């Protein structure tokens, strides 16, 4: 598919506002969902459903994910493709960037609907236009890797990756780092994005930062920096903290610990 001209948009500028009461219900559902062991799915679903009734699109996304796979329990959450699609469609009607991205993924994999490359491409582009960082990464990957070699466009790919990497999405930022590492062979720029991803809670970012400064870095971790035992230990400790608590973020990481020149 030939995509129209590039536009950099940020998801935060297009996400619909969330009702305050619905947000409280959503957060209560998230707390219960993170409990280890047996989960109280009846209460979790109840909180999500109440939030969804007030157009809370994050609750729609999470509930749709549960319907997509189902979740065992006594009782659990039954897999229900129809309800999943209804929630994704509702997100699209609300013009939620993530909703367009979710629908693109569904169309690409043929989950509950006929697999359609054209529909997937159309929704993915609309998601990117509305600022979805993961959609922007997908378009970046399309231009950098998916096209035949003689038609690949690294400049266009870079525009999408940079736009995605400027947002606060750890997965998209880590993929932006990977693009600079593999496609552009720009190790310093790649490590900049890996550090930014780490600050947003990316285990991938912290893994690279830990390896880069080790005394004997693996080839994949060799970014041309000198071994630094203190930095290696510092990032190893952050990695352990994140493993223990995946919700951790390190907002001052880049400011307090700038990368060596």
TrEMBL record:
A Pfam family reported for this protein in Swiss-Prot or TrEMBL: Sel1
SMART domains xrefs: SEL1
Name recorded for this polypeptide: Sel1 repeat family protein
Lineage, highest ranks first: Bacteria, Pseudomonadati, Pseudomonadota, Gammaproteobacteria, Pseudomonadales
SUPFAM superfamilies from the UniProt entry: HCP-like
Taxonomic source organism: Pseudomonas prosekii
